Amino acid sequence: MAQNMFRSGFLVRTTHTLITWAITLTLFLHNTDLRKCEELGELLMPVVFILLVVLSVLLYFAVSLMDPGFVLSDTEKGSQDLTEEMESMMESSAPWLRRCGYCLLQQPMRAKHCQVCKRCVRRYDHHCPWIENCVGERNHRWFVIYLLVQLLALLWAFHIALSGLSPSVTWDLWFRSNGFLLASLVIVGIFSVAVVLLLGCHLYLVSINCTTWEFMSQHRISYLKNCDSEYSPFDRGVFCNLWDFFCTCRTVMWEQTFLRKSTSSI
């Protein structure tokens, strides 16, 4: 039972939630700007901060529990005829047309089998142990939005924790009176650095329409290994890439995009 709970992400999500609210409670219990505003009856700052924390937690669970874009089997698709996507995949015997060696499903272009989830994921980016879920076509934009909201909450929490550090006569008394705030500062600082790096990397990859998997494994991917290292066959320019990523809510047939880009480059 314990193994099933861990595999389902229960422990990871519970730990994340407990740390989040433990730090939030610490900021309210110490003599920080939040506490001072609360005592003065100025509730705007505490309320906005709590709402930001709640939003970050909600986005965390949304991204963590969301279907990242699992490739459906014939049974899951029902008795429907071949979709336009499958027809476009079967138009030629191109090298990117492949069947998964694990679940034996016909993989759309940019899909990959996740060894942890045991499923093929459309426009696979990576499996994130932080959310205990894959990041793929359906939840990638929400993952980036979550990182942005989480970064805002972390930076604000770091500033609030600094405001609560109080001077003492000796170092020993100072550590005793500020111990919980110092622990919060360390945790928030580590998470802030991690989120900044993650957000920066993902925004760069999104701007060139590339995934983490494609960026790291280009030499092993059939439709990319013959491309220039700085060239993405799916790149439509920074503005179009960002617009498609954040504003397009539909399944993209990357085979057609690849063919159009390949034809236009000949």
From TrEMBL:
It is a multi-pass membrane protein. PANTHER family: PALMITOYLTRANSFERASE ZDHHC12, ZINC FINGER DHHC DOMAIN CONTAINING PROTEIN. GO terms for biological process: protein targeting to membrane. It catalyses: L-cysteinyl-[protein] + hexadecanoyl-CoA = S-hexadecanoyl-L-cysteinyl-[protein] + CoA. The keyword Transcription regulation does not apply. Pfam families: DHHC (PF01529). Residues 99-218 form the Palmitoyltransferase DHHC domain. The DHHC domain is required for palmitoyltransferase activity. This is Palmitoyltransferase. Belongs to the DHHC palmitoyltransferase family. GO terms for cellular component: endoplasmic reticulum; Golgi apparatus. It is found in: Endomembrane system. InterPro entries: Palmitoyltrfase_DHHC, PFA4/ZDH16/20/ERF2-like. The gene is zdhhc12a. The keyword Cell membrane does not apply. Its EC number is 2.3.1.225. GO terms for molecular function: protein-cysteine S-palmitoyltransferase activity. The chain crosses the membrane at residues 44-63, 143-162, 182-206. Keywords: Acyltransferase, Lipoprotein, Membrane, Palmitate, Transferase, Transmembrane, Transmembrane helix.
